[in-house]
Each structure stands twice: as C-alpha cells, then as structure tokens.
Design goal:
The complex is a heterodimer of chains A (about 425) and B (about 300). Chain A folds into 2 domains: about 1-55 and about 370-425, Urease, subunit C, domain 1 (Roll); about 55-365, Metal-dependent hydrolases (TIM Barrel). Chain A is built from 13 helices and 17 strands. Chain A has helices spanning about 75-85, 105-115, 140-145, 160-175, 185-190, 195-200, 210-225, 240-250, 260-265, 285-300, 315, 335-340, 350-365, and strands at about 1-10, 15-25, 30-35, 45, 50-55, 55-60, 85-90, 120-125, 180, 195, 205, 230, 255-260, 305, 380-390, 410-420, 420-425. In chain A, strands 1, 2, 3, 4, 5, 15, 16 and 17 form an 8-stranded mixed β-sheet that branches. In chain A, a hairpin with a 2-residue loop joins strand 16 (about 410-420) and strand 17. In chain A, helix 4 (about 160-175) crosses helix 7 (about 210-225), helix 7 (about 210-225) packs parallel to helix 8 and helix 8 (about 240-250) runs parallel beside helix 10 (about 285-300). Chain B is of the alpha/beta class and about 300 residues long. Chain B folds into 2 domains: about 15-135 and about 290-305, Aspartate/ornithine carbamoyltransferase (Rossmann fold, 3-Layer(aba) Sandwich); about 135-285, 3-Layer(aba) Sandwich (Rossmann fold), CATH 3.40.50. Helix content of chain B is about 40%, strand content about 15%. The chains are: A alpha/beta (about 425), B alpha/beta (about 300). The interface of A and B includes residues 197 and 314 of A.
Chain lengths: ~425, ~300
C-alpha cells in the first residue's frame, strides 16, 4: 500500500527540518516530500493537518514478560501497547523467566514479534550475567550476534564490583553499553518506597536515595577505568543526576534515562497506599523531580523511557509491602512528556523528539531515522493539542497498573508508520 | 456525635474535637467498668471480627473485652501474615469473612497501610489495631486519655517518647495525636532508631536521655524489640540500657515528678528499670484499663452510625 500523508508538520531535528508538507510513501520508502502532492488510485490519502510527523519513537526500557509471565503481558500485547503509545520500536528487558541470557531466547522473541500484528520493532537487551545472578558473565558476543543491543540485569543491579568491571570491559570490546539498575541492595532491603519525610510519616520501610547514588558513582569510576559505555536506567535522584552531569563534563561515556513517572509524580503519592505508586526505583521527592527537570533541560538526561512494568490486577490488590514493583507506561509516556515537559516549557518539541528517538538510537547504535526522500519511513504521529483523560480500561496492554488513571493530558501519539504499515490508534478519550 | 470517618485508620489528620470526644466517651465507659455488672447492650446484634495477622496478646484481649462489654458477637481470626501470603490474599480473607455478615473488622497487620487497603475492599467499619510501623490509633488515644487523667490537660504538656522510634507505630500515632492536642512532643533514642526528617512532624529530637528527661513532663518508653537484632541498630543491650534505659537515678535527677508510661510488654531492666515501672509515677496499669475504655468508645462511636 502506498500513502499520501497530507499537510503534516514534519519535525526532524537531526535534519533540521520543521515544515508543513505532504509525504508520499511508496513501498515503505519516502518517495517524495513537497507541497500539494498527489498519489495514484491505489494509494491512500491521510489528512494530517495539525499533526506532527516525527522520526519513529523508541522506548528503550520495557518489560514484556515473555517468556514466563504471559499473564501480565506478551510480546503481542506489549507491542500493541507500544504502537498505541506512539512507539515504532521497543527494547525488552531480560528479567523474564528464564532470563534472556541465551541466543535461543532472542530468536523465540523475534519469532513472536514478527507475528504481533503491529509494525513495532522489538529489540532485546540481554542479561549481563547468567540467570541475572550477578556472578558469571552471560555469553555477550553470542547474544550480540543474535541481536542484543546492550546488556543489563535490570530488575536487579550488578552488585559485585569485579563482575561489573569485567562486564564493562567485555561489552566495550564489542561496542555495546552496559545498562545498570543502580541500587545498593544492602541499603534497600525490605524497602517499599523512598526514604524521607513521607516514609517517616507513613512508617513505611524505605529505600534511601544514596542506595542509587553509591552504585552510579562506583560505576562511573569503573566505566571510565574500563573505557566502556555506561547507561543508567531509570535515574531518579538528584545525587545520581548530578554525578552523571559531572562525569559527562569530564568526558565520560555515560548516558541516562528517566521515566515519566519520576518527573511527574513524587513520593507524596504513596500516602494513598495505592500499590500503583510502588515502583523501583521508588517515586522520589519534589526536589528530585526538580533535578530531573534540570537534567532533561540541560541534556544530562538523554532519554525518556517508560520502564513499562505490567502486573496483573490481583497482584497489585494486596498490602503495599507485598505488592510487586512497577507500573505500565507505554500508553502514557508521550502524553506525560507533552503535558509535563512541553507545556511546562521544560523541553521543546525537537528536544522531546531527541529524547524519544534520536538519543536512544544513538546510545544503542541503531541507525538514525530521517524524514527525507529515499529514507525508509519510520514515523510517529503526534497530536500536540489533543486533550484526553487516561482510562486504564482502554489500555491495550494486558495490564492496567497505572497511577495515572483519570489524569488529564494534553498531547498524544495518534499513530505510527513502520515496515510499510500505517497503524493509526484511536483518537478517542483513551489510553 | 458520630466520627467524621466510618473507619478508624489512624490519628493523622484527626481533629482535636474528635480526639476529645473519644476521650470523653471513654471516660463515661470507665464508669461502666467500675460497676458490678460491666456489660451494656450497646452493640447487641453486631458482629465484630478481630483479624490479627501478627501476634498480639494485650491489644487483642483489650479489643475483645471491649467488644464483649458492649454485647457484640465476637470472632477471632489469627494468622501469621507470612503464611496467609502463601495462600489466600488479605482481600479474599476479608471478603469471605464479610460475606458472613460482619459489621466491623479490627485488623492488626505487619504491613503499613493494610487497614487503609482493607477499608477500600470491604463495606464493614475498619479499625486499625496496629499496621506495621505506621499507626496504632487506639494506643495513642489511650495514652492521651491517661495523660489527661494524670495532669488534667494535654495542651502544653511535654511528652518525650523514648526508644525505637523507627519501628514504632505507637510513636507515630502519639506524635500525630499529641500535636493535634497542643502538646509538645520530643523523641529520644539512638540515631539509628530515629527515622529521617522526623522533625518535619513537629517534634524535637534528643540523643541524650538526661537532656530529654529534663525537658519532659511525661516519658512514654517504648519496648526495644530484641527480635530486630539481626539488623544491627545498636551495639549491645548493655550499652542501650546504660545510655537509653530509663532508670530511677535518671528520673530522680530531674527533681520533679515525671509521669512514666509504657505501651507494654516491658523488657524489665532494659528500656525501663523495674523500680521505675512499679513506682508511684508509673501509670502503666492505668493505660491498660483506659485501653479497654477507649476501644469501647471507638466501637460505640463507629457502630452507632450503622
């Protein structure tokens, strides 16, 4: 199928393009960009007046739970949620059961992804250590050859400094980054929320911010020593953000991502005892949110990633201390970025596109996407003016565990184009 | 007067006049407890379940006695929360019990916020009998009633809570209640047992017991939980006793009468020396009696609304 995308606002910061024009797509390739184009009878014309056409977004931190916990999410349902959320690509974290520490699991995931029914590229970030046990290195070269873009034991940190050193050295040899879930677990044992005035007021077992900062500081030292690329997953504290800023100034090869919930919500939310406010790293203080905002603004924080972590309804319908960590995020990430960042003048539209597309692709060594004639069409369609209210029942993810239910948003991804396929989401009052 | 909430989940946010109302009601029930026949028909036909997911002797007995004095039908359910976790969820347990037409649920649980969760999934009135290290509202109410009896007021009274503040539900509920009533509250203990930023709750922090005693009218001494010693919060019990134990000598040095309270059970000669616990300044047994009266008051005030 060929497409005539009419009157869209093309925003491609890498090519320094921001203009309203028509796009002709033939066999999945951008054939022509210009004014008042037309297409033959076998093509479809879509009016994109008021819609931003951006290079395809990638969410480099999602948990699709397959294999092992298909009752929470599958590759197919997760991919659908990604498409609805405006992502043409995702990176699956390896904390499945079994963990993604063997090439055979990657080929299984690739097979499932091919039949997901939506044009979403499903990439894999494989385990650093066998079984994510933190002891022996996983076969990183084999995993990379099978398609792994990076390595992490996410869900848990690589605790041992020597293992981390060897992982950084080994991964740097093949040009892959190590992504760390930065948490000193000896400081967080039993904790269910951030340590601070709110945990004190609630008598809740807590996780101090220094638990994250200690590991980030250690890893920055190690990665510089090893000459490796290091990426901090879901950075959440002022101290950690400042450490990354200092390291970047010193020329270290370090990057980091923040989740929308860590810039949109503070630990005050836990006062409700709603288990959808429980995640790891936990919601931090208003001061940490300010630090995240500053970090996004000055480029210390490179990427926005959702840490999409589906859990079934019943798993979250328990005492706060017993509930699993994590919330779904694919279908609210773009809305939150627009509502909290674009409309609060933290980031420009071009900067949002950088953090959802250009930077994560750079970190993962994926080809940059350009909206130019001759390029493969890999696009995200955004309606910046669209006002909507989050309704978890309308999520396409299998799980509905979101603290944003009922929240008003302005700005939404309304569709994607990838692999020659146009996928338009619902523009209703939906997720 | 009924209470503004259908549940008693905590003291945080409870207005002063409501705390006073509960204490006044409890005072009237104290008179009932002095009668030869100590039972009134107030909650006749009501069914109350005591859901205890954590071992407790005195709180459970106190609640049960209060319930029976008010003529309610009482069911006791005790289980170790960890064993329940493996099987039925709290939600299912509570809903099953509620399906048997229970009017009120008294819950003790090791996880903070469990009563709040329960109040969202059942229709019965929920009473918090202690949730983790969060709140223990009836304990704070009985503590405040005891201080009011002894000193005639709460406003301006200086209360120091001594011991393991971090893991205490008694401390938090007392802080919320006493602050609402206009008392001055301080806490004293090793830094490792004082939660961060507790000053934000409006309390003064001491690490020297003598200084704390000097500026207090009441000492509420908390139990040191010996079973927490797998995580080292202080070096030895001997050292704790020496620097944070409330002894006759320390109290005498204050040169004024200091009211001594303890929520029990006491580790004699650890956090509180036996001679102080049994002295005339101790109101520990008054606390126990007031506990029954306060729980009767709560059950009455919540049950009356149904």
């Amino acid at each position: 199928m060929n497409y005539h995308l009419k009157n869209g606002r093309i925003v491609d910061p890498a090519s320094k393009i921001d203009k309203t024009a028509d796009i002709l797509i033939v066999d999945g390739v951008i054939e022509k960009i210009g004014q008042k184009l037309s297409i033959g009878a076998d093509g479809e014309t879509i009016d994109l007046k008021g819609i931003v056409v951006a290079p395809g977004f990638i969410d480099m931190h999602v948990h699709f739970r397959e294999p092992g916990q298909e009752h929470k999410e599958t590759i197919a349902t997760g991919s659908r949620a990604a498409a609805e959320g405006g992502f043409t690509a995702v990176c699956c974290m390896p904390n499945t059961n079994p963990a993604i520490d063997d090439p055979s699991i990657i080929s299984e995931i690739n097979k499932k992804a091919a039949s997901s029914g939506v044009p979403v590229d499903v990439y894999v970030i494989a385990a650093v250590t066998k079984g994510r046990q933190g002891k022996e290195l996983a076969p990183m070269m084999e995993l990379a050859d099978a398609g792994a873009l990076a390595f992490t034991d996410d869900g848990a940190p690589v605790e041992n400094a020597e293992v981390m050193r060897r992982a950084l050295e080994y991964a740097s040899m093949i040009g892959k980054p190590i992504i760390q879930h930065a948490e000193d677990v000896s400081l967080t044992r039993g904790g269910a929320m951030n340590e601070g005035s709110v945990s004190t007021a609630l008598g809740m077992p807590s996780m101090p911010p220094v638990a994250e900062e200690i590991i980030v500081e250690r890893d920055l030292t190690l990665s510089t020593y090893a000459g490796a690329a290091y990426h901090v997953a879901h950075i959440s504290t002022r101290g950690a953000i400042e450490a990354v800023r200092r390291a970047k100034k010193g020329g270290a090869s370090v990057t980091c991502e923040v989740t929308p919930h860590h810039f949109a919500l503070s630990d005050e939310e836990v006062r409700s005892f709603d288990t959808n406010t429980k995640m790891n790293p936990p919601l931090r203080t208003k001061d940490d949110i300010e630090a995240a905002i500053e970090g996004l603004r000055d480029g210390t924080i490179d990427v926005i990633a959702s840490d999409h972590a589906p859990h079934s309804y019943d798993e979250k319908q328990v005492e706060f201390a017993y509930a699993p960590f994590g919330i779904v995020g694919l279908e609210t990430a773009v809305g939150l970025a627009f509502t909290e960042l674009l409309y609060h003048k933290v980031l420009t539209l071009a900067q949002i596109i950088q953090k959802f597309s250009i930077n994560p692709r750079k970190i993962l060594h994926l080809p940059q996407l350009r909206i130019k004639e001759g390029e493969t069409a890999n696009l995200t369609f955004l309606d910046p003016k669209f006002e909507w209210k989050v309704d978890v029942e309308k999520f396409h993810s299998k799980s509905k565990n979101s603290p944003f239910h009922g929240r008003k948003m302005k700005g939404k991804a309304i569709g994607i184009f990838n692999k020659g396929i146009l996928h338009l989401g619902s523009r209703e009052d939906a997720g | 007067m009924a209470l503004s909430s259908r549940h008693l989940l905590g003291i945080e946010g409870m207005p002063e006049q409501e705390i006073t109302e509960i204490m006044d009601t409890a005072t009237r029930f104290l008179e009932v407890l002095e009668r030869p026949i100590k039972k009134v028909p107030t909650l006749q036909g009501k069914t109350i379940v005591n859901l205890f997911f954590e071992s407790s002797t005195r709180t459970r007995i106190s609640f049960e006695l209060a319930e029976r004095r008010l003529s309610a039908d009482v069911i006791n359910f005790s289980a170790d929360a960890s064993s329940v976790r493996k099987g039925e969820t709290l939600k299912d347990t509570a809903r099953n019990i509620e399906a048997m037409k229970v009017d009120m649920v008294v819950i003790r649980h090791s996880a903070a916020g469990s009563p709040h969760f329960l109040s969202k999934v059942v229709n019965a009135n929920v009473i918090n009998a202690g949730d983790g290290s969060h709140e223990h509202p009836t304990q704070a109410l009985l503590d405040m009633l005891t201080i009011r009896q002894k000193l005639g007021k709460l406003k301006g009274v200086r209360v120091c809570i001594v011991g393991d503040i971090s893991h205490s539900r008694v401390a938090l509920s007392n802080i919320y209640g006493l602050r609402a009533m206009g008392a001055h509250v301080s806490v004293c203990g090793p830094k490792t047992l004082i939660p961060r930023e507790i000053e934000k709750l409006g309390v003064t922090v001491y690490h020297r017991l003598d200084e704390a005693i000097e500026s207090a009218d009441v000492l509420n001494v908390l139990r040191i939980q010996l079973e927490r010693q797998d995580r080292s919060f202080f070096p030895t019990l001997r050292e704790y006793r020496q620097y944070f134990g409330v002894t006759k000598e320390r109290v005498a040095a204050a040169k004024k009468e200091i009211v001594i309270m303890h929520p029990g059970p006491i580790n004699r000669d650890v956090e509180l020396s036996a001679d102080v616990a049994d002295s005339g300044a101790s109101v520990i047994l008054d606390q126990v009696l007031n506990g029954v009266a306060v729980r009767m008051a709560i059950l009455y005030l919540l049950g009356a609304g149904n």
